[in-house]
Amino acid sequence: MASTGVFPCYENQFSVGTKGETSTDTDMKPIAEMESYSIKFDGKPQEWTPYETDGWTERMMTGKGFTLSVSGKRCVGDVGNDYIAGLAWLNGRSCNTKMTWNFPSGGKLEFNAVVNVTSVDGGKSEDIAPLEFDVLSNGKPTYTAPAASGA
Fold this sequence. Notes:
The chain is mainly β. Helix content is 5%, strand content 46%. The radius of gyration is 19 Å and the shape is globular. The relative contact order is 0.22.
């Protein structure tokens, strides 16, 4: 059921395709022990200044991408966590996968991604091992709007 009003961030739910680019719905798994997801959009605006604008710049967004930066703890034995941690040692298309983001509103974002693991297993002796990674969008995502609530 879709939420209205403000919401805690943990109501966002993320899943990773544990079979890479060939993942199906049954291969989509949550990633245990993640504490933070933040998104940064990478717009590609083009600029031009025609004579008729008296020196004022015109702009148009002609491309877009995004990066999710994720941090949490390494959780050996969790399918999603193990899958992401294993990508630290791979290159090329082996780091490509599918991701799903379910929003508290009931909306859903499905997208292809490149996973860049930035920290795994290290730290001070008294720390809990980290798992940190960036998820870079790879191509156009599919957004499904929340179902309209009718009375």
